[in-house]
């Protein structure tokens, strides 16, 4: 069973087994792919968008369907400002705790919310499983319809037991060319993202990196 939520730097054994997921972009160019899960919400998503704009950076947002329905204007801002958008289920289901049929229904429900709220046609169907957890049956089914996007660098910004400095360090010490970094535009991660994101953008921009969407 896929469980990727344990490591700051995803081990190669896991990426080898689930090799049809995108874990990292194969490039030597100085590009980092920031991703934000669990939004959009008014408490933190606009902050993230403002920071990205300041640094001319783009990112990919894995949105929860019901948050899009509650905050369509923030969702619109994500799209208008040139970021990419992916599916993160309708209400953040854990694949391990749900029957396949319910899980797939929840994914499709989120996809139809995405489709009806996007102004541009969705050209690539991106999906990221909440908690990085999927049963093998869910992995096989979803990979035929979606690009499953995981990560190689986990900031742990959702972890209430670690400091904001540690979150920053996790990203600064592990991100490299082609890295897919996970952060969250969620209430739990808010203070850590407010602290770490501007410093991540500043640090890597000074080193000649660009931030692009997937
Ligand atoms: Zn999530």
Characteristics:
single chain; about 210 residues; alpha/beta; TIM Barrel; six-stranded parallel beta sheet; two-stranded antiparallel ribbon; 8 helices; binds zinc ion
CATH class: Alpha Beta
Helices and strands, in N-to-C order? Answer: EHEHEHHEHEEHEEHEHE
Distance between the termini: 25 Å
User: Rough shape?
Assistant: globular
Q: Name the hetero compounds present.
A: zinc ion
The biggest beta sheet reads: 6 strands, parallel
Low-confidence blocks of residues: none
Total count of strands? 10
- Looking at the structure, the CATH topology is TIM Barrel
Corresponding CATH architecture: Alpha-Beta Barrel
Count of the separate structural domains: 1
The CATH homologous superfamily is termed Glycoside hydrolase/deacetylase
| Share of β-strand residues | 15-25%
Structural class: alpha/beta
Number of helices: 8
